[in-house]
Amino acid sequence: MISENDLRDRLDAVDVPPTGLRVETLVAQGRKRVLQRRTVRAACGVALATGLLVGVPSVLLNPGGGGTTNPIGDEPASSASAEGPREPTAVPGLPTVRCAGKMLAVPAGMTTVQPVAVDTSGRYIVGNDVRMSELDTPEGKVAGVGDSQAILWTDGTPQALPKLGDWVSASAVNADGVVAAIAGPKDKWADAVIRYTGGVPHKLTPLTGKWTFESAEINTAGDIVANATRQSTAGNRIDAVMLWKAGAQTATKLPLPLGAEARSILDDDRIVGVLAKGSQISDLNSYVWTPQGKGTKLENPQGQNGSVYEARGDWATGNLWPAGAVARWNLKTGEVTEVAVDAPGNSINASGWIASAGTIMRDDANVELQLADDDVKGEPIAVSDTGVVVGLPFDGSSGAISWRCER
Q1: What is the reported pTM?
Q2: Longest C-alpha distance within the chain, in Å?
Q3: For labelling alongside 362, which of 113, 208, 258, 310 has CA 20 to 30 A away?
Q4: Which of 294, 292, 180 is nearest to 227 (CA)?
Q5: What are the C-alpha distances in Å from 193 to residues 24, 219, 224, 225, 269?
Q6: What is the distance between the alpha carbons of residues 333 and 357, in angstroms, rounded to a whole number?
Q7: In what order do the strands lie in the sheet with 305-312?
Q8: What is the distance between the alpha carbons of residues 235 and 10, in angstroms, rounded to a whole number?
């Protein structure tokens, strides 16, 4: 079994540049995987072992299998954390758009709230009040999730969604307010996928067998995809990407290659994700697959490796290394643009706007996300097609912030 020290040695061999990313930003960037990917204690304020590796598939974080290793440590966050959110250099000649920030109300009694996604219309926002397990396995790994409850904001009004099981973690929402979530027993990882319709939870039926789920994504139609690992499998590899069509109760298995991991499902049913053919960073590539499993590789700039994180419309975003830069792929033309900011490419909308580095990166404007109530600085993690941005307090405290930016 691979120990934490073994994993650190492998991560140390990866050439990742110094980064100004903070733990809270990385937790938010891993918003749909923060519970599932087992690399962060979301509520404990600990640092990742290595900077931009949150977007790396689990097979690379645990090469060769051998259990669920938790690469966390006690390293302090970068000194940049005290300076506020990092922002890219303003582009001369472009107008500046200033977006007013607002703290969202949260349900009574919730004290560890983090938003995770916004729908394409900007009307619905989802988040979670989450606490990681206080138990550790004999190998020193985080045992699982202690408690989590999903929150749905509709036009800014919060609703605590009912649980199925001991904990539920929302990860995506569409413009009809349908929420995709995962759920599990206390101090364990997710063993179920949940669909909320009208705020009512429905447990979906997976393929035959016992599974652990990493994430769930949804498109405008309401189709849900989830990455799944057989509970009998050693390690973190993805054994199946399951699809539940809108309204369907039972999953089908998508015909994707071994090592494929879904990151987004587009409105035309294409899957955008990553494929790891080995345990090295160079073995990782980003792809777009048709529902029939035909894949098109997304090219990286010369000398760079990359991982797509999220896609919407004709656009996808992620990160490149060793540059540590944000990447934007045009899914129609295959063109990739490198943005020289060492920060996560958190989210992208249909206009190609990227939520990253304390701001929204746009081709037509410089964006300033203004302070929220009580002069709270914020870090954006998701952006709708209508210009609604959602984020969390930069200091990692509980709460959700929304901004409305001009289109």
Answers
A1: 0.84
A2: 58
A3: 113
A4: 180
A5: 26, 15, 9, 9, 19
A6: 26
A7: 305-312, 315-321, 326-330, 336-339
A8: 16
Question: Exposure of 12 by Cβ count < 10 A (0-12 exposed, 13-18 middle, 19+ buried)?
Answer: exposed
Per-residue pLDDT of the chain (407 residues; tens, 9 = 90+): 223 333 333 334 433 334 443 434 333 444 334 333 322 222 222 222 233 344 444 434 333 333 332 222 222 223 334 455 666 678 889 999 999 999 999 999 999 999 999 999 999 999 999 998 999 888 777 788 999 999 999 999 999 999 998 999 999 999 999 999 999 999 999 999 999 999 999 999 999 999 999 889 999 999 999 999 999 876 667 899 999 999 999 999 999 998 899 999 999 999 999 998 777 777 789 999 999 999 999 999 999 988 999 999 999 999 998 888 999 999 999 999 998 887 889 999 999 999 988 899 999 999 999 999 989 999 999 999 999 999 999 888 999 999 999 87
**CATH code of residue 141:** 2.120.10.30
What gap in Å lies between CA 286 and CA 310, rounded to an integer? 11
Q: What is the DSSP string of 394-407?
A: TT--S--EEEE---
How many Å is the Cα radius of gyration of the chain? Answer: 19
Domain range for residue 121? 4-404
The answer to whether the CB of 271 falls within 8 A of the CB of 43 is: no
Q: Could you tell me which of 275, 270, 310 has the C-alpha nearest to residue 290?
A: 270
What is the residue-wise DSSP string for 57-119? -HHHHSTT--S----EE-PPPPGGGGG----PPPPTTS-EEEEEEEEPP--TT--SEEEEEE-
In the structure encoding, which two tokens stand for residue 374, read together? 């009580």
* CA nearest neighbour of 263 among 195, 301, 316, 205: 316
The total number of structural domains in the chain stands at: 1
CA 107 to chain centre: 23
Judge whether 159 and 152 are in contact, CB under 8 Å. yes
Name the token pair of 359: 């701001």
CA–CA distance, 151 with 179 (Å, rounded to integer): 10
